[in-house]
Amino acid sequence: MSLEGKLVSEINIKCDGDVFHEIFRHRPHHISTMSSDKVQNVDIHEGEWGIVGSVIFWNFTDNIETHHLTGKLVSEINIKSDGDVFHEIFRYRPHHISSMSPGYIQNVDIHEGEWGTVGSVIVWNFTHDGKEKVAKNVIEEIDEEKKLVKFKVTGGDILEDYNSFYVTVHVDTKGEDNIVTWILEYEKKNCNVPDPHTLMELCLNITKDIETHHLN
Question: Do both 184 and 210 map to the same domain?
């Protein structure tokens, strides 16, 4: 029973329904001119168009796998320490994080530019899944109003599994509540690569360590 399935989807169209039906019955070979990026060719191999028993060959492009290779993870965590300080750490002094979260971050060095500026290149030495790894990234965006910093990974271990990888961290401060939001955006190299849930867990654990450091 579990090997059998059925998918049903409905969509509302504004064009003529009789014409739509007529296309799929009598002239599916015209679809390649209407949807050329998805259907390249439709040929009849036996019988005639529009009759039961006719055999039709479809040449088409399946973009489903490509769609599933891209993804986005979002996590929020509430911290009791100062939200402005948290943002300032990731913008201006991520090289201090190794002293706040030594179990996860061993070293952070700047290779190009200056701390806290868009375009600066930063190299992180970190521990992930029990292994020491390296990530080279560039600061792609800074938004002081949103307390946001966005990094683009440009080298290192992460890109062994992903064609692209972006990390965004921002802080919402509302009274005594400080909510840190992490966003991971990525494209996997193939469908066997897992979604980066363990990397998200790493970000949350680092957040907790920074919070603990400032509360002690």
Answer: yes
